[in-house]
Structures are given as structure tokens and as C-alpha cells.
Amino acid sequence: MKKANRKTNRSMIVYRFVRFLSQIVSKLIFKRKILRNEIRGKKGPYVVIANHQASLDFVNLIGMTRTPLNFVISQSFYQSSPVKWFMTKIGVIPKQQFQTTLKDMRAMKSVIDDGEALVIYPAGLMCEDGLSTPIPVATYPFLKWLRADVYVARVSGSYFVMPKWTRGMRSGRTYMDVYKLFSAEELAETDVEVIKQKTDEALLFDAYREQEKLLVKYQKNDRIEGLQHVLYMCPHCKREFVMQVKDESVICCTECGFTQKSDEYGFLHHNGDVGEEIRYVSDWSRMIYDAQKQRIESGEETELSAQTQILVVDPKRHKFVHAGEGRLTLTPDHMLLVGEVGGQALDVSVSTATFASLPFSPGRYLELQHGDNIYRCMLEDGKLAMKFINMIKAYYELHVMSCEHAK
Prior knowledge:
By secondary structure, the chain is of the alpha/beta class. It has helices at about 10-30, 75-80, 85-90, 100-115, 140-145, 160, 185-190, 190-205, 205-215, 280-300, 385-405; strands at about 30-35, 45-50, 70-75, 95, 115-120, 150-155, 175-180, 245, 250-255, 260, 270, 305-315, 320-330, 335-340, 345-350, 360, 365-370, 375-380. A hairpin with a 3-residue loop joins strand 13 (about 320-330) and strand 14 (about 335-340).
């Protein structure tokens, strides 16, 4: 692969300003405590791989070194952000989530070739339930190909500061641990399977099990409005879309009466006579995913379809705007979006084998990228968003398992 000619519009004045603001946020909101910082004073080239618990995880990392960090971010977030100019000036690298083109690879490799530091969030998305989003299998050979020292930046607690299923921030302690995982020489000599094992051990997490050890109180952490969009299936009667949040901290099934109440640590407690306690949201969510995967494997439920409004990015306003409507359909092999955008027929098909998940908002929308086009699908029945995501994850996992068996 030929070397890319990297052009950056980074302004060190803007970069230092953003880093300064991030330090304030990391101190006042995330209350960051540093456990280790092995990139302090480190010169490039090197790679930082980071776990992803919240949308603003970068604020806990950007101030860990005075050396400029080149963050890889989603194309969707970059194109629709009102602060796109600032992101350009700090040297971010926008790319399609879960799919990496040759152009993206060259852009990231050029950072290393230029002797600088590259930051990647391999999971691609912050978690919606305290569990890591699956890491695409292409990540591990890609790290080997970069031929640079690899550091891990592992954050704990930021999921509770900014839960994906609700809005706003909930101030509380977070921890940052940055350490070397591989040297460039070790990567060159290490098998990809070993790279995968060590990378997964470093990045994968269960925020609720971490919280069991940390026991940090977060502001308004017992308020769980919005969580019903993630925990949409009752674990007792197994019905879907029957969960409601009442009195801000109680989630209950409208069919069988199964009820749990949240506490200030984010744990759930049995509250009633039906069913048993499910202490961790992550366990409940995993239960829903496993049930969905089983229905797919048995052939009971293999497709999902929904009517949707279609939004696209307005390049002048840097925001998503309504452009048409259509139908979103997930099959075992493809995600299909058929409809009309801007008065033109739209027929998009993306293989389910190419992405581990999709950008989404529980109870609201999914985003599908096809080439340079990003389509935000505002589902008419928003509660289906999380079900789509669980099915997508299941299809990707089954595809990976199929490829491994074929070897």
C-alpha cells in the first residue's frame, strides 16, 4: 500500500485550548483519577487503543500528554457536529464506523509514518448497557500492520457519568489507566490470535461488575428513565416492549408485574412478588441478547422491518435534516434501506458480515452508512431500535463463528 500524503489543518493554539477545556471537564464532571500514565512525555510514533463507555471519553484522555493525539472519530459525528471546525483544527481523523476503507487505513498509517500518536476506539460505539460493543475482527491484524508501540487507555466509571439511554451528565468518580500493551517489536513477532486475546482482555468490560468493586455514587444515578428502551424484554414473562419506568427509579412489566428498583450505585433490586432480582443491567441486557440470538439460530425470527423517516447531513448547517422516508429491513445477509430521498429513489444494501453494530440511539434511530452517504433512520416505532441492534450483533457473531469453523 502506497504511503498517503497526509494533510492536517491542526492548530496547536486550538488544540491546547480544547485540551485545557477537557481538563476542566475531566476534573469537575468525570472527577478523573489517574492510576497509571505511561504516555506522559512519550514521543511518537505510537498507538493508543481505548475502551469506550461514554461519548466524551476523549476528554479524559486528551490531557494525559502534551504530545498531540490524533483521534479517530466517526464520520457521522464529524459531519453533523456544530463544532466541526474545532475538530478539524485539533487534527481528528473521521472514518466510517465498523468499516475501514483503504483511504481510512492510509490516513491512520500516515499518522504513524509521520512519527505522531494515533488514538483508536476499536469498539466504535460507547455501550448502551454497561457491556463492551463487539470489537471488529479486522482490528487485530490492523494493529499488527501499523508497526508501532501500542498503549491501552482504559477508563472505568464514565458509563455512569453519561449513560447512553438518557440525556445529561451525572457527575462522579472515573478512573483512567494508561499502560503499554505491545512494543512494535512484540507486535511483529506475535500471532494475531494472541494479539486478539491480549487486546480483548485489556478493552472488554462490564461496567456494572467494575462498579461492584468501586462502589462510586453518581449524581442522580438511581433515575433510570430511558432504560426501558434497552431492557425492552421482561426476563420473567419473556414478552417484548412491555417495560415501563415509574417514579424515575422503578422499572416494571405491564403484563406480569415484574418490578426492579434502582439504587444510587446503579444496581437493581427486586421490588415485588414476581420473579427474582437482576442486580446488573448488563446481565438483563445479555439475557435479552441471548434470547434473540437463540430465536435467530432456531429460525423462529430471522428478519426485522420498520417504516422510517430518513435524515441526511446538511453540509452547511452541520446537522441531520429530514430528506425522505422508506423502510429499513434486516435479513440474515443484509441491511436494506428502500425509499425516497430528496425526490430520488433510494435502494441501499449493506452486508451484515461487514459491521458488528450500527450507530444508534435507544428508542429513536439507527444510522446506516453507504459509501460517503450517512442515513439516519428515525424509526416510526422507535422501540424497535434496540431490537435491530441485538439482531445485528447476533448476525455478526454468528458470521465470525462461521468463519472460524471454516478455517
